[in-house]
Amino acid sequence: MSTSTRTSTTTRTGLGRPEIWRWRVVDIVVASVLGVACGFLFLAWNVGYLGPKALLEPLMPGVQGLLDGPWLIAGVLGGLIIRKVGAAIYVETIAAVVSALAGAQWGGFLTIEAGLVQGLGAELIFLLFAYRVWTLPVAMLAGAGAALFGGVNNLLLWFAGSGAAFTVVYLICTVISGAVLAGLLGWLLARGLASTGALDRFGSGREVRARV
Questions:
Q1: Inter-helix orientation angle 25-48/87-101, to 10°
Q2: Measured between alpha carbons, how far is 141 from 184 in angstroms, rounded to an integer?
Q3: 160-186 burial string, b = 16+ CB within 10 Å, else e?
Q4: DSSP class of residue 184?
Q5: Is the dihedral of CA 60, 139, 87, 185 positive or negative?
Q6: What are the tens digits of pLDDT across the range 17-71?
Q7: For the segment 72-118, what is each residue's pLDDT rounded down to a tens digit?
Q8: Where are the transmembrane segments (predicted)?
Q9: Do 126 and 88 form a contact (C-beta atoms < 8 A)?
Q10: Where are the domains of the chain?
């Protein structure tokens, strides 16, 4: 095989594949709808988490990280469904913008900033697998990645000066929450949507429907 042929093959099978870079109109529309829908989920959880938080905080400092998962699902869903470069960041950020515009208690700028950081954490996992692997383990890793980035961001902005014990417990708890509540549930939700035929214009939808 010539050098040019090897290079061409590598390009088609790696990050040089044009289909993962080119966003269609339907990609933008569906990603935006996902972001808005997740934004309403965020709004509900902005209030809903307060009760569990009051119960968990006295048990052990940092264990409230177990509640972070619902705020991380948008990026995982975006990546799994759209399967384009930037989808995880885009959907997570749109969801954060919706939450911010509705008056999230953390303020507009910090809410959107958190969305960008969390989306980046999920995006880097999909990048690590060159936007080719969409299995449950990868989805859970993406949720964990979003949680890790978001957790470090929270420690810097909201828990500055916390001790080592709090930091370790919080990061472990938020990563677990991200893997399960964003990764596992996000993967199940994406497959559920695909099985209805709603995602037949996407590789994620056709892949699931082909197995049914």
A1: 50
A2: 9
A3: eeeeeebbebbbbbbbbbbbbbbbbbb
A4: I
A5: negative
A6: 999 999 999 999 999 999 999 999 999 999 999 999 999 999 999 999 999 999 9
A7: 999 999 999 999 999 999 999 999 999 999 999 999 999 999 999 99
A8: 21-45, 65-82, 89-108, 138-161, 167-190
A9: yes
A10: 3-211
